[in-house]
Automatic annotation (TrEMBL), chain B:
Residues annotated as transmembrane: 35-53, 65-89, 95-116, 123-142
GO cellular component term, pick one: plasma membrane
InterPro entries from the UniProt entry: MFS_trans_sf (IPR036259), YdcZ (IPR006750)
Pfam families registered for this protein in UniProt: DMT_YdcZ
Superkingdom, taxonomy of origin: Bacteria
Keyword Oxidoreductase listed: no
UniProt protein name: EamA family transporter
Amino acid sequence: MNNILSLSIGALISIMIAINGVLSSSIGNYQSVVIIHIVGFITMILVLILNKARINFSKDIPLYLYSAGAIGVFTVLFNNIGFSVLGVSMPLALGLLGQSLTSIIIDHFGWLGMKVVKFDIKKSFGLLLITSGIIIMTIF
Amino acid sequence: MFAIAILASFLAGVTIVVSRIINANLAQKIGLLQGTFFNYIVGLIFAFFFLIINKEPLRITNHSLGSIPVWAYFGGLFGVVVVMLQSYISHKIPSFNLTLLIFIGQLFMGIAIDYFTLHQLSIGKVIGGIFVLAGLIYNLILDQKKNEEILE
């Protein structure tokens, strides 16, 4: 069930990228990021009102927990630099490499409160298949 | 510039995973809806900041806004759903499995979108995607065997 939900998140991201791509090609990268966040922000306000949910800025939790939105904007910035110099395929492959290595390290050490999943050397064969798949996609 | 672009592309991937987990941690502390709200308000502030320092020529005019199809503004809505679902799932499965499953979903939906909008089918993407899928399934089976050993 969790696996199917995760696959659908990916499918939603693809639809989102296609829609956002139309916006950014018409009005520019940074202006579209602002608009996308305004739309998301308004959506969240409506969702909160409809659910009668309360917003409290809690000072008791570490401040860095609020940084994810900022980090997300850095993702866009890094992608813009990558795509403008390297084209489409290379940044995608490198981005997936970045995601994979970061995930493996975070799982292995249990950083950021994640459950520890030690890297199993038997998984090297799976990694080899995944890497070859990415190389095939990048070349063709 | 080439080296910077390579590093930037790699860091784009790193930041995707880190922000996903931090959002999930915030949601655990203050609630899913509230966490997503803060993701957007902080993101909006930074997006404005980068817009100003990048001096991108302003193309938002009445004319340009009118010529863009209305649905092009709804990407932010999909973003909200994605952020919420990711916050919900991030602590339920290992980060690496989530990364790969999202990638596979993204890849095959991307192939479908290209096929239906551009009438193009990228064989390289299909074959490459099958390799990634095979690698993921292989590793998931290893996980399952290990779990069964622990239970026994």
